[in-house]
Amino acid sequence: MDISLSHVDYRYQANTPFERLAIQDVSIEIPSGTYLAIIGHTGSGKSTVLQHLNALLIPSEGTVTIGDREIKAHQKNKDLRPVRQRVGIVFQFPEHQLFEETVEKDIIFGPMNFGVSEAEAKKRARIALKQVGLTEEILDKSPFDLSGGQMRRVAIAGVLAMDPDVIVLDEPTAGLDPRGRKEIMDMFYALHNERKLSTILVTHSMEDAARYADQIVIMQQGKVVKKGSPEEIFSAPQDLMQMGLDVPEVVRFQLKLEEKGNIKLEKIFLSIEQLSAAVAEQLRRGVTS
Amino acid sequence: MMEKMIFGRYVPADSMIHKMDPRSKLTIIFLFVCIIFIANNWLTYTIIGVYTFLMIGLSRIPIRFLYGGLKPVLWLVAFTFLLQLFFTREGTVVVDWGFVKIYAEGIKMGFYISFRFFFLILMTSLLTLTTTPIEITDGLESLLNPLKKLRFPVHEMALMMSISLRFIPTLMQETDKIMKAQIARGVEFASGPLMERIKAIIPLLIPLFVSSFKRAEELAIAMEARGYRGGEGRTKYRQLSWKTVDTLQLAFLAVVTIMLIYFRS
Ligand SMILES: Nc1ncnc2c1ncn2[C@@H]1O[C@H](COP(=O)(O)OP(=O)(O)OP(=O)(O)O)[C@@H](O)[C@H]1O
Ligand SMILES: [Mg+2]
């Protein structure tokens, strides 16, 4: 399912003294099957953009197109449920949304709201639980008796069980330990590859953006300031640093190496393997010539 | 969703009302609540109304914002009006539909009481809109200080109040966030049959309770960790200062009161 935002503005608390233009003239294309990462400083409007992707926020100006559904500013947008079924959102700290008596009931809550039968929902719950790396024993426990990391995984399973075509992730691993972080990110990447899920990820980790994304959007003060593939984005590391954003460790290493080691590689590499191969190649050539 | 709520919210501005001492504002509100009961005819109600809107004008709070925020309460005002209208049985009958009779007195009482209610809401909202929760608490604590002699826990009450006022916006934000999360999971809060909508409250309320309790506990621990031991011997960073405006405002209220007593029937 393709999603696109075209010239979207959003104002929080319009017509009050607290009015605030959170995003301005944002245009982003997300063709079906893309893995898009959105990066930017805190308060740059990333979460605001995300909430437009399943019509939780209706643009103040501009148009959001989700599949064949158009959501425009200044008009009544009725019956948004079908849209929300196809676009699953994992919010920042999703464990805050848990409420049921048991983990199982909480996971099937979403699918059943969208009219899936109980038997089918329970089947999906088991699959989703496995995907997020939990075992079935947990199903009968109260979600409030779990550890923070387990709660996070249960909440994510609740979104996966809705079987969305698009999955939207707002810093899904914030506050997790490094291993849990990697497990969850790898899990989403596997889902993206297996089911061709479009994935939109908001993250502060340049490593994650470089490793997983096909496209990167950089936001600053409510505006999109840069778009492109990871190679394009990170090939101008000075620009990023000027904006006060980090670059992946590999890139930083390469820059230092070029500065101190007196070599120049033909492009920026985003993984250690590629970089070391290129450096080895360069050295070999250096010796022979 | 919850964005329009204005209760317990402070709107910063540079106005005469904002600059007043919280003690004078609290005293004025208290007196206002009493003297509003002096009004008993059109003229006296008009005086109260003019006074209220004068204060709103002086506070520089945009009327449109005030109106947006008070819209939900206006229903309550309208309800009060209808209640008086249908249940007062005095004076001459104006409308007679057999089983419902509307009396002249009912119409009058309806207007009076709903306006009284309306002005009270406006003035109390004005207090919270122009005074930070901290100021309100400091003011209250200072005004109630004499009660300490009677072993009334003034400081503790003030602290409880400031904590609840402080967390109203947080609670609103949290409500908004959890509502959105549940809407994304297919809950309909705003449409659908009544029973469904009532059921939809549960996925909202439970997470809110859980996080409120958690927050309360964390706050208690944080206070303890920073050595909080209650009001004994505690000094204040913010000092209250009574200014000429405050005296003038109180004098003005006295004039209004005298006018009310003079013109009441
Ligand atoms: N409910 C709200 N009311 C008023 N302003 C808001 C509201 N939510 C967000 N904002 C403002 O909109 C701007 C964008 O917020 P947003 O949450 O989209 O930022 P973000 O990029 O997701 O930040 P973070 O990385 O901290 O999550 C911020 O300046 C914020 O203050
Ligand atoms: Mg955010």
TrEMBL record, chain A:
Membrane-spanning ranges: none
Enzyme Commission number(s) of this protein: 7.-.-.-
Domain ABC transporter: 3-246
Membrane disposition: Peripheral membrane protein
Domain of life: Bacteria
Location of this chain's protein in the cell: Cell membrane
Listed GO MF terms: ATP binding
Cited InterPro entries: AAA+_ATPase (IPR003593), ABC_transporter-like_ATP-bd (IPR003439), ABC_transporter-like_CS (IPR017871), ABC_transpr_CbiO/EcfA_su (IPR015856), ECF_ABC_transporter_ATP-bd (IPR050095), EcfA2 (IPR030946), P-loop_NTPase (IPR027417)
Principal place of residence: membrane
Pfam families: ABC_tran
Keywords: ATP-binding, Cell membrane, Membrane, Nucleotide-binding, Translocase, Transport
Family statement: Belongs to the ABC transporter superfamily. Energy-coupling factor EcfA family.
Self-association and partners: Forms a stable energy-coupling factor (ECF) transporter complex composed of 2 membrane-embedded substrate-binding proteins (S component), 2 ATP-binding proteins (A component) and 2 transmembrane proteins (T component).
Function, in words: ATP-binding (A) component of a common energy-coupling factor (ECF) ABC-transporter complex.
Name of the protein this chain belongs to: Energy-coupling factor transporter ATP-binding protein EcfA2
UniProtKB/TrEMBL annotation, chain B:
Database matches in InterPro entries: ABC/ECF_trnsptr_transmembrane (IPR003339), EcfT (IPR024919)
Keyword Membrane attached: yes
Keyword Transmembrane: yes
Matching CDD domains: EcfT
Membrane topology: Multi-pass membrane protein
Major subcellular location class: membrane
Keywords, comma-separated and alphabetical: Cell membrane, Membrane, Transmembrane, Transmembrane helix, Transport
Pfam families: CbiQ (PF02361)
Subcellular locations according to the entry: Cell membrane
Transmembrane segments: 26-53, 65-88, 109-130, 244-263
Function: Transmembrane (T) component of an energy-coupling factor (ECF) ABC-transporter complex. Unlike classic ABC transporters this ECF transporter provides the energy necessary to transport a number of different substrates.
Family label: Belongs to the energy-coupling factor EcfT family.
HAMAP family hit by this protein: EcfT
Assembly, per entry: Forms a stable energy-coupling factor (ECF) transporter complex composed of 2 membrane-embedded substrate-binding proteins (S component), 2 ATP-binding proteins (A component) and 2 transmembrane proteins (T component).
Protein name as annotated: Energy-coupling factor transporter transmembrane protein EcfT
Organism: Neobacillus paridis
Gene name of the record: ecfT
